[in-house]
Amino acid sequence: MKTYSITDTGALREMNQDYFFASDDPVGNLPNLYIVADGMGGHKAGDYASRYTTQRVVASVSRDPGEEPVSIIKEAINTANKILIEEAAEDESKQGMGTTLVVATIIDGKLYVANVGDSRLYIVNDNIRQVTRDHSLVAEMVRLGEVDVAAAREHPDKNIITRAIGAKENVEADFFEVELQEGDRIVICTDGLTNMVEDEVIRNIVSCDISIEEKTELLVKTANQNGGRDNITVMIIEPFMYEVKAC
Fold first, then answer.
1. Contact between residue 110 and residue 68 where contact means Cβ atoms under 8 Å apart
2. What does pTM read for this prediction?
3. In angstroms, rounded to a whole number, what is the distance separating the alpha carbons of residues 113 and 106?
4. Could you tell me which of 36, 237, 24, 226 has the C-alpha nearest to residue 124?
5. Strand (E) or helix (H) holding 48
6. Any bridge partners for residue 186, and if so which?
7. Given this model, what pLDDT does residue 246 score?
8. Parallel, antiparallel, or unpaired for β 185-189 and 232-238?
């Protein structure tokens, strides 16, 4: 297993409100743990939301005595959501803060994923497949057939999300389980990447015959070259040895 992550402020923003955590070693009863969060809110509130939520998830997983990964992750998300809402209620400067969240772990070749918001997890092999489901206004419009995928990328409301940690007392995360195949690579990222770089370009870079560090750096560089309008966080996980192809 190889993992590499980068978070970057982007070309236009002054503050980075993204945050990530990656451990190939056990965290509590989970054999590994990967988290990406994209905060939102006023001055520094988004930064606080993503960082604090990630830290609370890690802390909850660390002390959870359970053995079932979905239950462990669900409890951690619910706990983090509750604490973030309490923090916002106690500090006026943090009112309205929230964050997207992707949490993943790999156990015996199976990937367990939870997501809230529009940060994403992809599996890349001969193709690229988005595992997570975007919780955003425009994504709902696409699912209802009101907007096509191409138009959605430039839609003026594409940054409006419909679920977030800290938004409601009862947070609803989506959960996914995927049997990993030989050659699968995993990409977890914020929309600072996906709004700037097409899925097929992501697939081509992740499939390149270069190191995992170079792949991650190239994805961030490409997002910035394409405008870098938001913070960019990219995490690549390579669970297996695989045959790579030249760029």
1. no
2. 0.93
3. 9
4. 237
5. helix 45-63
6. 123, 237
7. 60
8. antiparallel
